[in-house]
Amino acid sequence: MTDQPLDLDTRRRRIKVRAWRRGMREMDLILGGFADRHLADLTEAEVDEFEKLLDESDRDVYSWISGEL
């Protein structure tokens, strides 16, 4: 198997699954809902940034979004 980069459509499909299966229901709804509404329109650079956000812990992202931090 080769380590070829994934095309953007494949990345978007994988990201959508990751966004909806976070482990914290609130984050599923926030990030999954965002992915459903906006992922198809994101540029490749924006997809890169969204992937970085998905790499963060649910608790950290939720705290940031809710203003707890």
How would you explain this protein's 3D organization?
This protein is mainly alpha-helical and 69 residues long. 68% of the residues lie in helices and 0% in strands. The protein has helices at residues 8-20, 25-38, 44-54, 58-66. α1 runs antiparallel to α2 (25-38) and α1 (8-20) runs parallel beside α3 (44-54). The termini are far apart. The model has no long low-confidence stretch (mean pLDDT 93).
Briefly say what this structure is.
With 69 residues, the chain is mostly helical. The chain has four helices and no strands.
Keywords:
single chain, 69 residues, mainly alpha, elongated
What kind of assembly state do the chains in view correspond to? Answer: single chain
Gap between N and C termini: 43 Å
Please, how many helices? Answer: 4
**Unreliable runs, pLDDT <50, ≥5 residues?**
none
Structural class: mainly alpha
Number of strands: 0
Q: In this structure, how is the largest beta sheet organized?
A: none
Overall geometry comes to elongated
State which percent range the strand residues make up. under 5%
Task: Provide mean pLDDT, rounded.
Answer: 93
Q: From the alpha-carbon coordinates, what is the Rg to the nearest angstrom?
A: 13 Å
Helix content: 55-70%
Helix and strand sequence: HHHH
List the helices and strands and how they pair.
Blueprint lengths: L7 H13 L4 H14 L5 H11 L3 H9 L3
Helix pairs in contact: 1-2, 1-3
